[in-house]
Design goal:
Elements: H1 18-25, H2 39-44, H3 50-81, H4 84-92, H5 101-107, H6 114-134, H7 139-166, H8 173-201, H9 203-222, H10 236-241, H11 246-259, H12 261-281, H13 284-291, H14 298-316, H15 323-345, H16 350-360, H17 367-374, H18 383-412, H19 414-434
């Protein structure tokens, strides 16, 4: 399942001293003119920034291993229980902390050194999956361990997203958002494929060991970042007005998200595209197990195929368009693939249903243009908290829909459950297309 952080859950940092901030954020300035044309060149242009490149590489290595391990975890639980509900629960278990203590931990990314948060979270996740690689816990214990890993993931994603926005010049933010989503899709393609190979070659424990190793590699990369502290360069007035308690920061962030029309609409599209689509992904392992029980590796192929289409569509979208156009594109990316998937799920043919799962994943593409539209419009001093609020909304949607989807799949079948889930992105996309936003958007908060 996709992380609740999306690329939406990205925030802002500062340096421990002004010289560090300048070195990080202004490094690519001289390269902003004369860049190669083309969407791919635009997407990767930010990799010239050394700090952004480290963040990106950590995303690549950790996510590839994580998706391989998640597939192994879901496969192990379903093999033990034979229940789509249990498979869905283990899939969303890593997201549960976002609905509780994870929110408070993530909001601290607006107050402490991002680098410390990132490295500590990676170390904890490496420990958790290392334990899984050398033990055989029961199903309930697996659920608890997965929740513990998720508890570290929540502040990690908020801090990494904050750092991404901080080290990226404002004009390159849309490209950074799109590259993050494209990278996640690429990691899914590779991760699901590698996960299938690992399950066949070295088993679930091997997949867990590989995941632990990738977290250690990520921690090594992130430990070489400069100190990334917030508010070092913010004036005294902003410091006085920045909420200091975690609860107040989250309340202020929720107000900021809900009162900005474009941010609110983009967030709704993203949540109601990604939530149902990831819930449908959670049904792929049960679908394959029930339909082609002798070929369990087909689940990895379907997951990888969906991620590949998501990646291609993400790269094809121009991330430099105006926010309102990006939002409209996000709406069609949500509704279009979901509508096709509903038709395929209704055909009653196993092969077409399998294609429906692949097509349904394309609705996840909505997150890239939605993120590019809303991210620059979030208050700088509350960005980590704003992304935490957005992640909470998405996580709640994922948990509820995945649990309900699993229960419906057990009662009525996986394709019936998947068809019902994909009606939501259709409705959300069409509603966003038909709604209106004021032509004159409010001025963005000045860059710090």
């Amino acid at each position: 399942m996709r992380p609740s952080s999306l690329v939406l859950i990205q925030t802002r940092i500062g340096g421990a001293d002004s010289s560090q901030v300048t070195a990080v954020t202004e490094q690519p300035t001289g390269e902003r003119t004369g860049q190669p044309t083309g969407q791919l060149a635009t997407l990767v242009s930010g990799l010239r920034n050394r700090a952004f490149r480290k963040l990106w590489l950590s995303q690549v290595v950790s996510e590839v291993g994580d998706w391989a391990a998640r597939l192994a975890l879901t496969t192990v639980v379903y093999a033990r229980t034979g229940s789509a509900t249990w498979a869905a629960l283990i899939t969303v278990s890593g997201l549960l902390p976002m609905l509780g203590p994870g929110q408070l931990l993530a909001s601290m990314a607006d107050r402490v050194d991002r680098r410390l948060v990132l490295v500590s979270a990676d170390a904890l996740r490496a420990l958790v999956f290392g334990v899984l690689a050398f033990t055989t816990p029961g199903t309930s214990v697996l659920l608890v361990i997965s929740v513990l890993a998720g508890l570290a993931t929540v502040p990690f994603e908020a801090a990494r997203s904050a750092a991404t926005l901080d080290v990226t010049p404002p004009e390159q933010l849309p490209a950074a958002m799109s590259l993050g989503q494209a990278t996640q899709s690429l990691a899914l393609v590779v991760g699901w494929g590698v996960g299938g190979l690992l399950l066949v070659g070295i088993g679930a424990r091997g997949a867990f060991a590989v995941n632990a190793t990738t977290f250690l590699l990520s921690a090594g990369l992130l430990s070489r970042l400069p100190s990334l502290r917030m508010h070092a360069e913010v004036d005294d007035v902003d410091v006085d007005h920045a909420p200091r308690s975690a609860g107040r920061r989250l309340l202020a962030a929720a107000q900021a998200v809900s009162t900005e029309p474009l941010v609110r609409r983009a967030a709704l599209v993203a949540v109601l595209a990604v939530g149902p689509a990831t819930a449908a992904e959670a049904l792929i392992v049960p679908f394959v197990s029930r339909t082609w029980s002798s070929h369990p590796s087909l689940a990895a192929a379907l997951l990888a195929g969906g991620a590949a289409l998501d990646l291609l569509l993400t790269v094809a979208i121009r991330c430099t368009l105006p926010p309102e156009q990006l939002l409209r594109i996000a709406a069609w990316c949500s509704a279009g693939p979901a509508a096709v998937a509903v038709v395929l799920f209704s055909a009653g043919n196993p092969v077409l249903s399998a294609a429906g799962f692949v097509v349904a994943s394309m609705s996840l593409t909505a997150i890239a243009p939605a993120s590019a539209a809303l991210a620059p419009r979030l208050p700088a001093r509350l960005r980590a908290s704003c992304f935490t609020v957005l992640a909470t909304a998405l996580t709640l949607t994922q948990v509820v829909l995945s649990t309900v989807g699993g229960a419906v799949a057990d009662a009525l079948g996986t394709t019936v459950a998947a068809r019902g889930l994909m009606l939501l992105p259709v409705a959300a996309g069409l509603a966003a297309v038909l709604s209106t936003t004021p032509r004159t958007l409010p001025e963005l908060e000045p860059a710090r």
